[in-house]
Design a protein that fits this description.
Neuraminidase; 1 helix
Length: about 300
């Protein structure tokens, strides 16, 4: 990407609130609370997402090694716009931007999990690994891989990353391994498998987050006939995996390639914010989509 890091924000061209649909019901207990779009020629492939406790600020990571921060605008509690106001390059362990090393595509950031102290973790595809960052401007801290990571299919690796309320860091591959999606958790600097998620209807795992009670919310997607994206949300009760409960499935082509998910508690209930990866296609904006779900 031919862009100077110091000028990233000033050169950013943003289209905020290009669309905002009226509130609509999408199924039992799930309500659409708005969609807004953001366009940039410099930053593509937004995949990992984290929203603040008040639902007004967010962090994200993008496919070519960018870390973003911005604000969400709301009107009467519903999404009305989005503004990105900080863009930084993710750094490798030696302090250089991960995008400077294209060997095995080491810049492909996919999942994001942010701790209360502001430190965060990022999962990467192609060279499947997870790195910890003390701050957005800090160099990556190395985390030893699980032996499975090296045998995952190219571009179908660690898409989803989530921080459990008990402090455990969870990651999930995009494609099943040996018939199911293994659930990896990092404890005491070691990855272990603590469960399996059953595949269903050819959906791939692309995002995850935990509720305050430990309920797991999984974002899934598939490409239908090579033309339309279809998205889905599954929920798993605390401490359980397996099949879970399908909360919502989009119509074909209803939204873009939704890949990032983050939860926050609003006065009216639990909100689920999703973000789309535009796959680097010119003229295709990034979508921020929000739902309200009943317990």
């Amino acid at each position: 990407m031919k862009i100077a890091f110091s000028r990233a924000v000033t050169r950013l061209r943003v289209v905020a609130a290009a669309f905002c649909w009226a509130t609509a019901s999408f199924g039992e207990g799930v309500t659409h609370m708005g969609t807004v779009e953001w366009a940039s020629e410099e930053v593509i492939g937004v995949s990992g997402l984290d929203i603040s406790a008040d639902g007004l600020r967010f962090s994200a990571v993008a496919d070519r090694g960018w870390f973003l921060r911005g604000q969400l605008k709301r009107k009467d509690g519903e999404l009305s716009g989005v503004e990105v106001n900080r863009i930084l390059p993710l750094l490798s362990g030696d302090g250089h931007p991960v995008s400077a090393r294209r060997t095995e595509d080491q810049a492909d950031a996919e999942g994001l999990a942010v701790a209360e102290d502001g430190s965060f973790w990022v999962s990467f595809e192609r060279w499947a690994h997870v790195s910890r960052y003390a701050s957005p401007s800090a160099a990556a801290e190395w985390i030893e891989d699980h032996s499975d990571f090296a045998r995952m299919s190219d571009n179908r690796q660690l898409e989803a990353l989530a921080l459990h309320p008990d402090g455990g860091l969870y990651t999930f591959p995009e494609n099943p391994l040996s018939g199911s999606f293994p659930v990896y958790v990092l404890r005491d600097a070691t990855w272990e498998i603590v469960g399996q998620i059953d595949p269903s209807d050819r959906f791939a795992v692309v995002g995850a987050d935990f509720g305050e009670d430990g309920t797991l919310y999984l974002l899934e997607r598939k490409l239908v006939v090579g033309l339309w994206w279809q998205n889905r949300l599954r929920r798993f009760e605390p401490g359980t995996f397996g099949t879970g409960e399908v909360l919502w499935t989009s119509n074909r082509g209803e939204f873009g390639n939704l890949e990032g998910i983050s939860l926050w508690s609003a006065p009216d209930g639990l909100r689920i914010l999703l973000v789309s990866d535009n796959n680097g296609r010119r003229g295709v904006p990034t979508q921020f989509v929000e739902f309200l779900t009943a317990p």
